[in-house]
C-alpha cells in the first residue's frame, strides 16, 4: 500500500503500538517547543523529574505571550525561564524575538522530524513536512527527558488541493473554508494531510497559516509534503542543508478524503464567537467595525503584512477604527521596514506593537464593549480578547482586515479593489533577513550544571496531589454547555496570566467567566468532599494550557463528566489525576444538573476491568464510559503522572 507523508512520519518514529486508528501508539520525539504561558510549569516539571540535560535533538523555550510588564510578575517569569533554559540545555528566545511557531519554523524546522509543543498551534511546523503536535506541558517535559509521546493513532484525512487562489483570497481563506465545512470538531482524532497540484501555488508561509489553524478543527496535527517549495524556503533562511524531500508515495491512500478547488474560494470570515462560525465576507459586508488587528501565529510571514500595507498605502484608515499591527517576528519587522511597508502602515494610522502573541492571548489590544473587532488571529472564543465575555471578535484574512480598516465596516476586498482600482499580483518582497545570534544557545553541560534557577516570589512549586480514591461522593459544582474552551476554564489575559507560575493564585480565576463564585465554592470543600463538573460536547477545546486541569484539580476537582472531550485537555486531565467520563445515553446530560450529587464505589476495579463505569446521580444508577488506556488508568489512580513517576523511583 502506498503511504502519504503523515503515515511515513509516524512509521519512522514509532516506538510502540500498532498504526491502527484508535489504538495507542508511542512516538520518538526529536524537538520540543515551549512558550512562556505554559513553559513555566514545564520547567517546574523538569525540576520535579530531576532532569540534568535535555535528551532531544532540539528544545527551545520562547517568550512570546506575556510581554506586557505592567508589574514585576512577567519579568520574574522571563528571568526564571532563561535560567531554566540554561540549566537544562534549551535554546532561549527572549521577549521581542517573535511568536514561537514561525520563529521555530524559520530557525529549527526540519522535514522528517517530530516535534511536540505545549501550545496548541504547534502543528504550524507541519508546513515543512514535520509531524508537529500540540500537547500538554507534562508531555513536553517527558519528551525533553527522552521519553516517547503516547497518543491514539489518528485517522489520516487527505485533503486534495487543486487550482489557484483567485485575486484577493489567501491561505487564511483556505483554512476558513475547512472550518466552514467541518466546524471545530471535524478534525478530532485525525491528521490532515494536504496534497495535490494546488500545492504549487502555496508558499511555505501560506502552508503555515493553514497548519496553524488546523488546531481549530480539533485535528491532532496537519502536514504538507517537504517539496521544492520547502527547499526554497529553507534556502532563504540559510538552511538548505536541513532539507530532506518527503512527499506522498504515488497512489497514496487516506482513511478520509476531501477536495478543495482553490480557484472557487472567496473571502471568508468567522463570526463571533467561534472559528467554526464561517460565512462569506459579502454576506456580512457593511457591519460597523471599531478595531482591526493584524498579527499572530496565523500571520507567520512578511506577505501578510505587506499585502495589508499595499492596500492602505497612501490612504487613511477610518477615523472610528483602531488599526493595530504586531509583526510576527523581529526579522519580519526588519523586512517590512526594508520593503517600505512599515511606513505605509504607520502613515495610514496603524498602531505598531511589539512582535509577539499579544492580543491573540488577551495581553493588550482589548476591544471596547459593543465594538466589532476584526482580527487575523486563529481564535475568537468568548472573552479570549480580554474585552469581556460579550466581545465581538471576527476572524479574517489580512486582505479583508485592511479593506475593512479603510472603510470602517466589514468590506469584501474585491469590492474595495474595484472601487480604488487596486492591482493584485507579485509584491516583489525582499529576501528574508536572518539575524545571527537572535536566539541564545544553551551553555555546555558542565557550565549548565552550575546555573542557578532564578525564582521570584510569584513562582510557586508544583502541588502534590494525593492518589485517586476508590469511592467518593461529590456535588456537581458546575454544569456547563457545549464547546467550553480552556479560556473559559483558566482565562488568559493581562489580569490572570501573569500568575501562570503560581497555581494557587491562578486558581482564583478558574471558571470565573461562567461562575464568579466557583473558586470560593470549590476551595471551601476541596479538603472534604471535592467536587465534579458536568459538560457538553467538545469540553476543553482550544489552548493546550495545562493550567485548565491543574487549577481546578488544586481546587478539589475529582471528575469531569461530559458528552465528549477535546484531545489535549482530555489528556491533561489524566496527567493530573482527574477522571474524565463520558455520558452513554443521548439525554443523560440533561438529567444531571448543577447541585446534583455524584457517587462512585469500587472505582479502582471498575477502571481496570473495562470502559464502563457505574455510578449514581442523586441515588439513581447511571452508566458512564471512559476512553483511558491501561497506562492512563494507572496514571489517574496514582494521582497523576508526576506522583506516579516519583513512586516508581522510590
TrEMBL record:
Keyword Lyase: yes
Documented EC number(s): 4.2.1.3
Residue ranges constituting the Aconitase/3-isopropylmalate dehydratase large subunit alpha/beta/alpha domain according to the UniProt record: 11-408
Aconitase A/isopropylmalate dehydratase small subunit swivel domain segment(s): 516-584
The organism's place on the tree of life at top rank: Bacteria
Pfam families linked: Aconitase, Aconitase_C
Gene Ontology MF terms in the entry: aconitate hydratase activity
Name recorded for this polypeptide: Aconitate hydratase
Organism: Actinomycetospora aeridis
Amino acid at each position: 500500500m502506498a503511504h502519504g507523508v503523515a503515515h511515513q512520519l509516524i512509521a519512522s518514529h514509532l516506538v510502540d503500538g500498532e498504526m491502527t486508528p484508535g489504538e495507542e501508539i508511542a512516538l520518538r520525539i526529536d524537538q520540543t517547543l515551549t512558550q512562556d504561558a505554559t513553559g513555566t510549569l514545564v520547567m517546574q516539571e523538569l525540576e520535579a523529574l530531576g532532569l540534568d540535560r535535555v535528551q532531544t535533538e532540539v528544545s527551545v523555550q520562547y517568550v512570546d505571550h506575556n510581554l506586557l510588564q505592567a508589574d514585576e510578575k512577567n519579568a520574574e517569569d522571563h528571568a526564571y525561564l532563561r535560567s531554566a533554559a540554561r540549566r537544562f540545555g534549551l535554546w532561549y528566545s527572549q521577549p521581542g524575538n517573535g511568536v514561537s511557531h514561525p520563529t521555530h519554523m524559520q530557525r529549527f524546522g526540519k522535514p522528517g522530524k517530530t516535534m511536540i509543543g505545549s501550545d496548541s498551534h504547534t502543528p504550524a511546523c507541519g508546513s515543512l513536512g514535520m509531524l508537529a503536535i500540540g500537547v500538554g506541558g507534562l508531555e513536553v517535559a517527558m519528551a525533553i527527558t527522552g521519553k516517547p509521546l503516547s497518543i491514539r493513532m489518528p485517522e489520516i484525512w487527505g485533503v486534495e488541493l487543486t487550482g489557484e487562489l483567485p485575486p484577493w483570497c489567501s491561505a487564511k481563506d483556505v483554512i476558513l473554508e475547512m472550518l466552514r465545512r467541518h466546524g471545530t470538531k471535524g478534525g478530532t482524532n485525525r491528521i490532515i494531510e494536504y496534497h495535490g497540484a494546488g500545492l504549487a501555488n502555496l508558499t511555505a508561509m501560506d502552508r503555515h497559516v493553514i497548519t496553524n489553524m488546523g488546531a481549530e478543527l480539533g485535528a491532532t496535527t496537519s502536514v504538507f509534503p517537504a517539496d521544492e517549495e520547502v527547499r526554497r524556503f529553507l534556502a532563504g533562511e540559510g538552511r538548505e542543508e536541513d532539507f530532506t524531500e518527503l512527499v506522498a508515495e504515488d497512489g497514496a491512500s487516506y482513511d478520509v478524503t476531501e477536495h478543495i478547488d482553490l480557484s472557487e474560494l472567496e473571502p471568508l470570515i468567522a463570526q463571533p464567537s467561534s472559528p467554526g462560525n464561517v460565512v462569506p465576507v459579502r454576506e456580512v459586508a457593511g457591519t460597523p467595525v471599531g478595531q482591526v488587528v493584524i498579527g499572530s501565529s496565523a500571520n507567520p510571514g512578511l506577505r501578510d503584512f505587506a499585502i495589508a500595507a499595499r492596500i492602505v498605502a497612501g490612504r487613511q484608515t477610518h477615523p472610528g477604527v483602531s488599526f493595530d499591527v504586531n509583526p510576527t517576528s523581529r526579522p519580519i519587522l526588519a523586512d517590512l521596514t526594508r520593503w517600505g511597508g512599515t511606513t505605509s502602515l504607520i502613515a495610514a494610522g496603524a498602531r505598531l506593537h511589539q512582535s509577539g502573541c499579544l492580543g491573540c492571548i488577551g495581553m493588550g489590544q482589548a476591544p471596547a464593549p459593543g465594538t466589532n473587532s476584526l482580527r487575523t488571529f486563529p481564535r475568537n472564543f468568548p472573552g479570549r480578547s480580554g474585552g469581556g465575555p460579550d466581545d465581538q471578535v471576527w476572524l479574517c484574512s489580512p486582505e479583508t482586515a485592511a479593506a475593512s480598516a479603510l472603510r470602517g465596516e466589514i468590506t469584501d476586498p474585491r469590492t474595495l479593489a474595484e472601487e480604488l482600482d487596486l492591482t493584485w499580483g507579485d509584491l516583489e518582497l525582499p529576501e528574508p533577513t536572518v539575524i545571527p545570534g537572535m536566539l541564545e544557545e544553551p551553555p555546555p553541560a558542565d557550565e549548565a550544571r552550575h546555573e542557578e534557577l532564578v525564582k521570584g516570589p510569584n513562582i510557586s512549586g508544583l502541588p502534590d496531589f494525593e492518589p485517586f480514591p476508590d469511592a467518593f461522593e461529590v456535588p456537581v459544582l458546575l454544569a456547563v454547555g457545549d464547546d467550553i474552551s480552556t479560556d473559559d476554564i483558566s482565562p488568559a489575559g493581562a489580569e490572570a496570566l501573569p500568575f501562570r507560575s503560581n497555581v494557587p493564585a491562578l486558581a482564583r480565576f478558574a471558571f470565573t467567566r461562567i461562575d464568579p463564585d466557583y473558586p470560593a465554592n470549590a476551595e471551601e470543600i476541596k479538603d472534604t468532599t471535592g467536587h465534579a463538573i458536568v459538560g457538553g460536547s467538545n469540553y476543553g477545546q482550544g489552548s493546550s494550557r495545562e493550567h485548565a486541569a491543574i487549577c481546578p484539580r488544586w481546587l478539589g476537582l475529582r471528575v469531569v463528566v461530559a458528552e465528549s472531550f477535546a484531545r489535549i485537555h482530555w489528556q491533561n486531565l489524566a496527567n493530573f489525576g482527574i477522571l474524565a467520563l463520558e455520558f452513554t445515553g443521548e439525554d443523560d446530560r440533561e438529567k444531571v444538573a448543577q447541585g446534583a450529587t455524584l457517587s462512585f464505589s469500587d472505582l479502582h476495579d471498575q477502571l481496570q476491568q473495562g470502559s464502563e463505569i457505574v455510578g449514581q446521580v442523586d441515588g439513581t444508577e447511571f452508566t458512564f464510559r471512559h476512553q483511558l488506556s491501561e497506562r492512563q488508568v494507572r496514571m489517574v489512580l496514582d494521582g497523576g503522572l508526576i506522583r506516579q513517576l516519583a513512586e516508581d523511583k522510590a
